[in-house]
Amino acid sequence: MIFKNIFVYPKYPENLHKLYELAYNLWWTWNYEGINLFYRIDTPLFREVNHNPIKFLMSLPKEKLDSLSKDKGFLFELGKVWEKFEGYMKEVSSFRDENGSQRSLGKKDIAAYFLMEFGIHESVPIYAGGMGILSGDFLKSASDLGLPVIGVGLLYKYGYFTQKINIDGRQGEVFLKFDNYLMPVRELRNEHGGPAYIKVKILNEALRIKLWHMEIGRSRLILLDTDIDDNPPHLRNITDELYVADREKRIQQELVLGLGGIKALDSMNIAPTIYHLNEGHSAFLVMARLQKLMKEQGFSFSESRAIIRASTLFTTHTQVIEGNEHFGLELIKKYLESEVKNLGLSFDEFARLGFVKGKEGLFWLPALAIRFSRFVNAVSRQHRDVSRKMWDTIFPERPIVEVPIDYVTNGVHISWISERFSYILNRYLGPDYIRHGEKREIWGKVLDIPDGEIWEAHGKNKRILVSFVRTKIARDLAERKYSQARGKITGLLNPDYLTIVFARRFANYKRPTLILRDEERLKRILTNPKRPAQLIFAGKAHPADQSGKDMIKEIIDFARKHELEDRVIFLENYDMNMARQLIWGADVWLNTPIGDMEASGTSGMKAAMNGVLNLSALEGWWREGYNGKNGWAITAGQFYSHPELQEEAEISQVYTLLEEEIAELYYSRNEAGLPERWVMMMKESIYLSHEFNMNRAVADYVKKFYLPLKEESRKIQDDNYKLLREALSKEKEVLNHWDRVKITRSFTNTDKRSHIIEGETVEVECQVQLGDASPELFKAELFHLDGQNEKYKILPMELVESREGTGKYKCSFVMEGYGKQNLNVRLKPADAIVEDLHPELVKWAD
């Protein structure tokens, strides 16, 4: 028996219309007046539905709605929140106004932000971890800054898995189906008022995709959904599960994101100025754009690639090559060969765009994205250096320091600041700290906040955390009918104890169980009668990661073995709501990744915003944020080369810090009962927010990448693509002559001297064999690397003579550095577009 599915919306009193409109715009999730409005209606129910505003309102009985419509106090509060919301939505702000730049992004200069996961709020669980939550923070800050950013992602039927820990301490995965109509997402409508759909082809089969959207303040998120009755079962389930392990299903998801994402924007008449790809998962949008440019607009492949590069930014978030998305060539050929041939390209030509030297036989999506992006960035300074080494083979003949990968260190949105600390910051800093996230003079006022207010706010957050943990564990036990253990709940955790939290994805490189290395020593630290401590762990292991699951069991077994279950807690099903409680209520945020394996890390930033002190390896953001006054750095391993010795040194340092410094500082109180030195460190930690907030990060993206991309796109399109067409006519000549041109001789006026002094003028000359090539096709330049600080300069060399197929080039400069200096001359295409399209065209003097 088949029934037609329809969804009927409730009829509510007219004067509650604003409440329902607020529920569908997630602006309220970073405004405590909005959050408290929902809590006021029915606190237990709001918590029960995990703060899902739509499910919450749909669950209210008619009598409750009628009562609210007559409650003058509630209507007054609703009016105040609505007035604030309307003011925010109408606010005139721009990047230029906030930063004093003469350049700006206009309303039509849309940046399309592509990603597989978005962590906007726990009520829409289409995120797995830090990268998804980062993307949600990005859209929130773009809204705050008035920037025209549109997210593009997938709407998953089950989202990421729900974690369940069994009686033996083993992780299980449950996939709960979510009802889109009971989440703060809405169907997109077509011009006729009906639901909006697009179509793409997967292996020549038509796939119908439904479009949904979310409102995040002034930002929007477009979500693609294949769970449509019209689709056959093997295609309908494409958007079932986030980061599905099945490789064919994964490539199908990424094709839907890339090909479908571009079609979705087209169907909405949105023509982005900037395409921002996050991770390799979104790289197939390159294919969609090639199809549009080549098949619909008649551009050649080279022209299309230049146009795409001029408008594209690729952000890599991964620290190791193996963690980047890649597929076997047979799978790529199966899904893309016909699409490639329709463009007039051979499959081999296209496949080379995804190759990485030394990793033959695989197609790397980040490599494809890098080759079609004008700018590439990592997410911390350290991650930039690692990424340059990871992808240097895409840029042969380039020194590592010149591999064109920049960085913007991640930040976190101000919504991660607890209500208590938000009140304090508003009181002492004023509301400007929200808009001017990077201004030291504003954030510097944190250091003058009275110690008592900081400590009191933190104490309240800790008590709320303890209550949250007890309530959650009681609920989990009741669900499993473990009645014998329920009586111990009231003894779990103590809000007065030093509280250490480790909360993140459980993976080998994050080393969540490093602190268990010496069990007896850790037990002594935790049970010290004068300075007791407690540990809270939370995090999911990927369903296919058995070692991650084993580490969860190891923690639970440790607590049971040593009878420490009251102070060593593992909380199951880590999500955004739990993350808030942990970062608000912890004293110490523990982070112990393996060296060079943490791209950035943002949980520690969120904790720091709330005065929590980081105890972390000097990895990712902490390498930039640590100053010796705002937490502790785990550095002992850097003196050893062997991994086991490194680990031994690092965990020994952690234990020693906990025993001799951290606990001592925490429990050392003045006459008023305040740990003065600890509170001073808390203030220094909060002060870090001026560097590691998302408004600063988004502003960096605009300055470094979005505005230059806007300018490059404009230049390349001017006069009916005149500059581009001229460049590509030169490209043919450059490629025709490249094998025959070379630098035959280079020298300086200091070559025969053994003693060179800083401040001297160095003259450089080289001769280039040009043959019958025009000298205008190529340029010679001097590359000068200061070996002392790894900084480099590129100096153009002037063509001073050209005859009989030989060009003579010269330049001079003042030697500013001292110590080891590296000099060499090189030959490259003279045209900027040709040079950009062919990073491999570099010839150095022998």
Helix-strand blueprint:
Blueprint: H1 17-23, H2 32-41, H3 43-48, H4 53-59, H5 62-70, H6 72-90, H7 95-99, E1 111-114, H8 130-145, E2 149-154, E3 162-165, E4 171-174, E5 186-187, E6 197-202, E7 205-216, E8 219-225, H9 233-236, H10 247-267, E9 274-278, H11 285-296, H12 301-309, E10 312-315, E11 326-328, H13 329-342, H14 347-352, E12 362-364, H15 365-371, E13 375-378, H16 381-390, E14 406-407, H17 419-429, H18 432-435, H19 440-443, H20 451-480, H21 483-486, E15 498-503, H22 519-526, E16 533-538, H23 546-561, E17 568-571, H24 576-585, E18 588-591, H25 603-609, E19 613-617, H26 621-625, E20 631-634, H27 643-667, H28 676-687, H29 694-737, E21 742-748, E22 761-769, E23 778-786, E24 791-796, E25 798-803, E26 806-814, E27 821-829, H30 832-837, E28 843-844
Parallel strand pairs: 1-2, 1-9, 2-8, 9-10, 10-13, 13-14, 15-16, 15-18, 16-17, 18-19, 19-20
Antiparallel strand pairs: 3-4, 5-7, 6-7, 7-8, 11-12, 21-22, 22-26, 23-24, 23-27, 25-26, 27-28
Helix pairs in contact: 2-6, 8-29, 10-11, 11-12, 12-29, 20-24, 24-25
